[in-house]
């Protein structure tokens, strides 16, 4: 019952992740919610939390082994969805992912670099701060993980 979905395929876990309610997300996972269940758009709860910039929810889902490589129907990962939200929370969210060991592929680095470049070209206010926070991250942290 905890994974019952609405007409859009969203579960209670999707709703809690969307709203950034980390306590509710934790309770739903403990109750057996499937963290990788996709909605009609192919978004797992990690995608929706990332898109909204909810760092604590993202960290919790990653700690619960959420699939960072899972792609939605548009082919976007949670990390790429977070790039759509270039506001004050973006740098913190990306930094959080890097701290827990996430590494970006060459394609992701290129995509984020283009987005940051676009923001810098049109920047004002919090977008400029976010772009500068991203730019200050050490590039070695953004390098793809070495293949074993």
TrEMBL record:
The keyword Transferase does not apply. Keywords: ANK repeat, Repeat. ANK repeats lie at residues 8-40, 41-73. InterPro entries: Ankyrin_rpt, Ankyrin_rpt-contain_sf. SMART domains: ANK (SM00248). The keyword Transcription does not apply. It comes from the Eukaryota. Gene3D superfamilies: Ankyrin repeat-containing domain. Pfam families: Ank_2 (PF12796). This is Protein HOS4. It comes from Symbiodinium microadriaticum (Dinoflagellate). The gene is HOS4.
């Amino acid at each position: 019952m905890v994974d019952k979905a609405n007409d859009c395929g969203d579960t209670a876990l999707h709703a809690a992740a969307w709203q950034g309610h980390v306590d509710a997300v934790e309770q739903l996972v403990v109750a057996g919610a499937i963290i990788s269940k996709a909605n009609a758009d192919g978004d797992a709860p990690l995608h929706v939390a990332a898109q909204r910039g909810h760092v604590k929810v993202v960290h919790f889902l990653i700690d619960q082994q959420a699939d960072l490589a899972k792609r939605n129907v548009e082919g976007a990962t949670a990390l790429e969805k977070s790039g759509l939200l270039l506001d004050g929370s973006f740098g913190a969210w990306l930094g959080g992912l890097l701290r827990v060991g996430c590494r970006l592929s060459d394609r992701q680095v290129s995509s984020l670099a283009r987005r940051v470049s676009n923001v810098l070209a049109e920047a004002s206010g919090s977008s400029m701060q976010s772009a500068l926070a991203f730019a200050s991250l050490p590039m070695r942290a953004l390098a793809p993980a070495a293949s074993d």
